[in-house]
Amino acid sequence: MVLKLFIDSADPKEIAAAAATGLVDGVTTNPSLAAKTGLDLIEALTQICALVQGPVSAEVLATDTAGMIAEGRRYAKIAKNIAIKVPLTWDGLKACRSLRSEGLMVNVTLCFSPVQAMMAAKAGATFISPFIGRLDDAGEDGMSLIRDIRAIYDNYGFETQILAASIRNVPHVRESALAGADVATLPPAVFRQLLYHPLTDKGLDAFLADARKAGVKVRE
Ligand code: G3P
Q1: Is 107 near ligand 1, meaning CB less than 6 Å away?
Q2: How many beta carbons lie within 10 A of that of residue 140, not counting itself?
């Protein structure tokens, strides 16, 4: 088991660039991210589902159970790897139960408390999305939410996967891995930064300069 990495974007071009590394396990979108692309939602999701094999979260816009189920079924027609994203409300959890009983993946989003996460797991969620960055912004400790959910899920054997969301920087990724999250969803800029370390760049420059000076070559 390894921390799965999803890309938090609705932009097919950004997702394609990250997916080209072969190290992207899925994608999460939300209505704000979709609005930013200016693309037709279904068209964008269709393109994204073809770019990655893993789950692609598509968020419902309805707020009532019946509406969420109808939109979820529509999304599910796009591709087999669609995960329907529903908000952490009573209507959302009812829709979650129903969509799960149809064999569809469900991501319950906008989670800000351990008890909310427990309820989503009881409703059979495939993924729970705790929002780390937004909790930090509000003066709380986002990472302690991940740790609490991990403990509760392990206590009771819930199989719902913890998808650390609202990640703002590389330390958030490190902390998510240490806390035992199953997935971290990263904005493309944070994904690109995962390998950055100034000593890596400096060390590589020095190796290459030394080889150039000494005329070292790789023989064919
Ligand atoms: O996709 C949900 C989540 O990752 C949103 O992040 O940065 O808008 O709080 P953010």
Answers
A1: no
A2: 14
Render pLDDT for 88-98 as a digit per residue (tens, 0 to 9): 999 999 999 99
What domains does the chain contain, in order, with CATH numbers? 4-214 (3.20.20.70)
Tell me if 134 CB under 6 Å of ligand 1: yes
Q: 77, 85, 202, 213: which one is catalytic?
A: 85
Distance 110 CA to ligand 1 centre (A): 9
Which pair of structure tokens corresponds to residue 205?
A: 């420059």
Contact 90, 130 (CB under 8 A): no
**Is 13 among the catalytic positions?**
no
pTM score: 0.96
The pair of structure tokens assigned to 55 is 């789950």
Summarised one tens digit per residue, pLDDT across range 124-143 is 999 999 999 999 999 999 99
Tokens of 18: 């990250």
Structure tokens of 107? 């991501």
Q: Whose CA is nearest to atom 4 of ligand 1?
A: 166
Q: Is there an atom of ligand 1 within 6 Å of 131 CB? A: yes
**What does the chain come to in residues?**
220
Residue-wise burial string across 81-93, b where 16 or more C-beta atoms lie within 10 A, e elsewhere: bbbbbbbbbebbb
Distance (Å, whole) CA 21 – CA 141: 32
Q: With a 6 A CB cut-off, is 6 part of the ligand 1 pocket? A: no
